Amino acid sequence: xxxxxxxxxxxxxxxxxxxxxxxxxxxxxxxxxxxxxxxxxxxxxxxxxxxxxxxxxxxxxxxxxxxxxxxxxxxxxxxxxxxxxxxxxxxxxxxxxxxxxxxxxxxxxxxxxxxxxxxxxxxxxxxxxxxxxxxxxxxxxxxxxxxxxxxxxxxxxxxxxxxxxxxxxxxxxxxxxxxxxxxxxxxxxxxxxxxxxxxxxxxxxxxxxxxxxxxxxxxxxxxxxxxxxxxxxxxxxxxxxxxxxxxxxxxxxxxxxxxxxxxxxxxxxxxxxxxxxxxxxxxxxxxxxxxxxxxxxxxxxxxxxxxxxxxxxxxxxxxxxxxxxxxxxxxxxxxxxxxxxxxxxxxxxxxxxxxxxxxxxxxxxxxxxxxxxxxxxxxxxxxxxxxxxxxxxxxxxxxxxxxxxxxxxxxxxxxxxxxxxxxxxxxxxxxxxxxxxxxxxxxxxxxxxxxxxxxxxxxxxxxxxxxxxxxxxxxxxxxxxxxxxxxxxxxxxxxxxxxxxxxxxxxxxxxxxxxxxxxxxxxxxxxxxxxxxxxxxxxxxxxxxxxxxxxxxxxxxxxxxxxxxxxxxxxxxxxxxxxxxxxxxxxxxxxxxxxxxxx
Length: 599
Known about the structure:
This protein has 599 residues and is mainly beta. The chain has 4 helices and 43 strands.
């Protein structure tokens, strides 16, 4: 069949609410559509019907149908760039993906645009190629938002070196807060964090700053359904899929929008937020809380961000870390230095740079508020990861300004934190700072060190993930140091705050820690994020990603500033600014995504 004989079906047909465009092989007979399928009057074969957003959740995707009698191999897809500065998205498609979709998956279309998608393949030993036309609609993240082609607004800085041109960044942010669920827990005196709920903006950008994917979360969300509300957090790519949690459940779907599963949190666990870690064996580490927990004061409470569970591939619990029994829920040194204007996503600019008193922390009502004791937000774990070398959990605790490693025996292995406030056996687990020659660095109880450029702790940090070349003895940790409450106090001038990504090398035998690299301090307040954000190492390009996602929060003009830096270097290879959907709404995190269709 000659490629010159290809003709496009002129009209779009609509089937089950999904607009479909068809392209077929012209063989001299009339063309008609039947139930959304393009066929010829003599019944001859079609090259493919294009199903836009076939699965209903990813509007910038499509499937090109392959008739069952056709066998295509060596399939390669290129979504052609828009304009002279645009970025092609190119990927190979494995046979298993062709079988999965009964067609060719198309990923990375531009919104509100007549896209051109080049498909190359082999059939019966012959190389073939065709450019499909695919029209997409505008973007509407929430019912309250105006339709637009991108949620990037205002002045945007976009820079990328050639090595990083093909990067795609998935950003999970928060839109307006007008959509709230009716979900609440059974204990009005200790409500936990059940009411954490906001409609998200889940979108992906190329290094030209163009929107190339988003999830239609309104097609998934149901404010009246226990399983389908809550802040979307922990969003990350796991193999060919996306995994995230929200409220009382966790979810998995493909980047094409295929829903894989939604699972309720098991048993008495509740209020997912922040992070999920996927282990190589398929198990998941999930940050949760617990309902109907009897605390040390004899009160029955719903706890707040203080439990971590491991579930197997069927969702069965195989381990629990209860931080109320592992750590000290009454350690308050960090809580007394917190900026009460921004306690994670509870943002109140009227209380910016104010701190809480001892009395306020100890007599705070139960619930999602800063305070000591089980049933209050005393630990605020905002990231979880896992060291397979010694079967241990690594957590970031914002409200303890501490990064902590805990074994499967629920015993603390080490604590990276200022020494102040740690007591008894926990005090023995605090790491000793050293310089590059292994000499001790003497820091105060409050965490002030002689030369902060040589060594500084992390303060109200947001993620603590395993860094490059981490081993059994020398463990490398990469942390997003938000920088609020530095030295367990508020600075005289708020503009003195800064956010950085920082790497540490931990000698787990000697119990020492050395700071080996940092980026962000030199940028000062302009790069400062009081809440949220992420840092993560990516081995494919030997690079460190730092996303400072709530800069400008108090000014009501939030900008997520994403940089990616070759490991050990001082200047970014990529910098992209993403502006928030709603005034005062912080971005949450950003992560690298790769097209998931190759062999």
